[in-house]
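Much of the work behind modern protein science is quiet bookkeeping, done one molecule at a time. The fold becomes a row of whole numbers, each drawn from a learned catalogue of backbone shapes. The protein below has been through that process, and both of its lines are reproduced in full.
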Amino acid sequence: LQLVESGGGLVQPGGSLRLSCAASGDALEDYAIGWFRQAPGKEREGVSCITIDGSIYYADSVKGRFTISRDNAKNTVYLQMNSLKPDDTAVYFCAADLLVGYGNSWSVPGYVAYWGQGTQVTVSS
């Protein structure tokens, strides 16, 4: 399974971006998939996850602002990011085959089997 992110860029505080993650080599619908991010000098952290049965999880820091979705026909997962803040600045990574069903296990980078290369999101005026 290969994952390729797109859609990152520079946006002003309060603005919006939509990240896309296109998969090849296998069907995304067969995996729990999600988004992580890593800011300079910080640990990689889970942002959001959508499971095979459609259950969705968000980090507290993005609840109400970010929305994850999946288009199985396009084999693509999206992250719509609204009301962006400077603290959202990071490299965002698409991830597949997350561990779900054990509390916040979905947000643990060490349990992820597949990673994209990342896309930079910068929120600044």
